[in-house]
Design brief:
The chain is α+β, with helices and mostly antiparallel strands. It folds into two domains: 2-104, OB fold (Dihydrolipoamide Acetyltransferase, E2P) (Beta Barrel); 130-192, no CATH class. The chain has helices at 52-58, 103-115, 145-157; strands at 2-9, 16-20, 23-34, 44-51, 66-78, 87-97, 130-134, 138-142, 162-168, 185-192. A five-stranded mixed beta barrel has the order 1-3-4-6-5. The protein has a four-stranded mixed sheet with strand order 8-7-9-10, with helices on one face. A hairpin with an 8-residue loop joins strand 5 and strand 6 (87-97). The longest helix is centred in the middle third of the chain and has 13 residues, at 103-115. The chain is globular.
Length: 203
């Protein structure tokens, strides 16, 4: 069964090489902390793994980075210390990363229309500090300056050209020196904000 998920990485991504059917394969194992949409709720830890090209794409991503992906549901067995019984928990094999971070937003609204309920978007009620723009129209707004920087660098390393917009409130902006070290930034602008920005999705 395929699902689209979003969450924060619980650790830095590192690749291991394993032998599968006499062939060497690359694999990345990590924990994804997923928010269930309820105010003040605790994040839910879920095991994730990625193989081959997807693992290589995730290599170097750091703890706390927000990712979105389409993955295949799987059971993960574990045996606690001093126990002979094996328990199983939910896990996911990541099939494709969504660097534009649109898939969960689209999924939530599709399912909410079907179930006739209000969609629970993964969002932060803080003021946005800037946004990354893809393909001219697609954009993601950020309330966390460090996450905006991390995602910009990750996209640059993936060779994806983007536009960066930084919001200025009361004459102040977040630090943006990192942008000048990113060769694939097509455009960089600073926008003065006098009221709540109209954004597609807050992270």
């Amino acid at each position: 069964m395929l699902h689209a998920l979003t969450g924060r990485l619980g650790a830095d991504c590192t690749i291991k090489k394993v032998i599968v059917k006499e062939n060497e394969e690359k694999v990345m194992n990590n924990t994804l902390y997923v928010w269930d949409g309820r105010k003040n709720s605790q994040a839910i830890p879920i095991h994730i793994e990625a193989w081959g090209n997807v693992a290589e794409e995730m290599e170097g991503m750091t703890k706390g980075t927000i990712i979105q992906f389409v993955g295949r549901l799987k059971s993960v067995g574990y045996t606690p210390k001093n126990s002979e019984k094996t328990f199983y928990q939910v896990g996911y094999n990541i099939l494709k990363l969504d660097l534009l971070k649109n898939i969960v937003h689209t999924q939530n609204h599709l399912l909410s229309d079907f179930a006739k309920v209000e969609a629970d978007d993964y969002k932060d009620e803080s003021d946005p500090v800037g946004e990354i723009i893809f393909n001219g129209d697609d954009k993601v707004a950020y309330t966390d300056a460090e996450l905006l920087k991390r995602d910009t660098v990750n996209l640059m390393n993936s060779g994806i050209p983007v536009q960066i917009k930084i919001y200025r409130r009361n004459g102040e902006t977040i630090p943006y020196d990192f942008i000048y070290d990113c060769p694939n930034v097509q455009a960089f602008t600073i926008e003065d904000i006098t009221e709540e920005a109209d954004t597609n999705h807050n992270i």
